[in-house]
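Collaborator request, handled under Task 6.
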Amino acid sequence: MDPEKLMDSLSKELSVSLKAMAKAKTPEEKVQYSQVVKNLCDSLGVFLNLATEMMGYDADDDDI
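Structure tokens returned to the collaborator:
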């Protein structure tokens, strides 16, 4: 799957989960949504960290 599409999907799901968490009434529901939000943030962080690392990579450096 295309990384951009995957990051887009994760971002949209994160937004939906945050809105649902805001509407949660019981502490148990809030805990459930907070775990979902944490997992989505962790997953999105993997892609953002990789993108950050790749920004410093220069393909021309391999020729040295």
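The cover message to the collaborator said: "The helical segments are 3-23, 27-55. The mean pLDDT is 88. Please let us know whether this matches your experimental observations."
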